[in-house]
Write a structure and sequence with these properties.
Layout (H helix, E strand, L loop, with lengths): L2 H35 L4 H4 L7 E2 L2 H9 L8 H4 L4 E7 L2 H12 L4 E7 L1 H7 L9 E7 L3 E3 L2 E3 L4 E8 H14 L8 H50 L7 H10 L7 H10 L3 H9 L10 H11 L12 H10 L6
Length: 327
């Protein structure tokens, strides 16, 4: 049996453990990332689905014996036999995953590549960017009825969406020996990476400005959620409709709104019955912004119907509840 056959036989015996370890890492790390990403849902925070992937047999053999890596013990030295990729929108979100990786005690994490450090060391170069970790099981584990030996490695790659797009486009050509990249191709790739890095900076700036603009709306939504829970006795639903309502109607109320709506509610207890009754089959009554709509219709009846995100039929019911006519 030659070296390749021995390598492959061992891999076929041990690949179930690597597969189980990859799945375990995804489960543990995704849970940790959820805490760092909160209140954003994990499926929104991550831009592509996450799945542990085993390296294909031929790819492993080529890396071990035919790509000039100079391995003395290729099976032990190849650390990406199972790998996971996390893709986010912003560079600041890469840092959140970085923190999440380091916060899990079930593995020993070693940073294999850090593009931020590479930028500091080579500030005039624009090259492939990605954060790479190797995480090794700290102890013997059993997961999915499979025994995972201590020190089993798994590679984690963390990228922004722009970095991921660049890698998908260029990596097989420029950084692997399948095709000889010309100087012109390398130059074009470097220009693309420079543009991607600049765009990432612009994205971060836009994100900061958006977050600053959303502060008042988010604070309003949180206040309305608390009041909805207290007054209506239900948990409010969330989604785009809440944002539409709050963004539109918050412009009509002043800084004294919180105290004003408390006083208003004390004289409008019948509104609770309307909201509870309709919440069973009408979604607008399940978002806490409905309290703001009622308040604005009651306090600013003319302005409340101008360019409203609610339909005339929806508004008509609310006006009618308050003894007013939409028209």
């Amino acid at each position: 049996m030659n070296r390749e056959q021995e390598f492959l036989e061992r891999w076929r015996r041990e690949s179930p453990a690597y597969s189980a370890w990859g799945k375990y890492v995804v489960e543990k790390l995704s849970g940790a990332i959820s805490e760092f990403a909160s209140p954003v849902a994990l499926e929104v925070f991550l831009k592509i689905p996450v799945k542990a992937r085993l390296k294909a047999e031929d790819s492993l053999l080529q890396k071990a014996f035919h790509r000039g890596k100079g391995y003395e013990n290729p099976y032990e030295e190849i650390e990406d036999k199972v790998g996971i990729r996390y893709v986010v929108l912003l560079g600041s979100e890469v840092k959140k995953i970085d923190d999440a990786i380091l916060g899990v005690s079930d593995w020993i994490a070693e940073k294999a590549r850090d593009y931020v450090q590479e930028q500091m060391l080579r500030p005039y170069e624009f090259d492939y960017q990605s954060l790479h970790y190797i995480v090794r099981s700290r102890n013997l584990l059993n997961f999915d009825s499979v025994e995972i030996p201590a020190d089993t490695p798994c590679e984690i790659q963390v990228r922004t969406l722009l970095q991921h797009a660049y890698s998908e486009l260029t990596h097989d050509t420029i950084y692997k020996p399948n095709v000889q990249a010309t100087p012109s191709l390398k130059r074009s790739a470097a220009k693309s990476m420079a543009l991607i890095e600049a765009t990432g900076d612009y994205f971060a700036k836009v994100h900061e400005e958006i977050q600053a603009a959303l502060v008042n709306s988010e604070q309003m939504s949180m206040f309305l959620d608390r009041q909805y829970r207290s007054w209506i006795g239900l948990e409010a639903s969330h989604g785009p409709l809440q944002s539409l309502i709050v963004d539109h109607y918050a412009r009509l109320v002043g800084q004294e709104f919180e105290a004003s709506i408390e006083d208003w509610w004390s004289s409008k207890q019948f509104v609770r019955e309307r909201i509870v009754g309709r919440s069973k089959d009408q979604v607008i009554y399940r978002v806490s912004g409905i309290l703001l709509v009622y308040y604005c219709v009651s306090t600013f009846p003319n302005a409340a119907k101008e360019n409203s995100p609610l339909s005339d039929d929806e508004l008509g019911l609310i006006y009618s509840d308050l003894g007013r006519s939409l028209n």
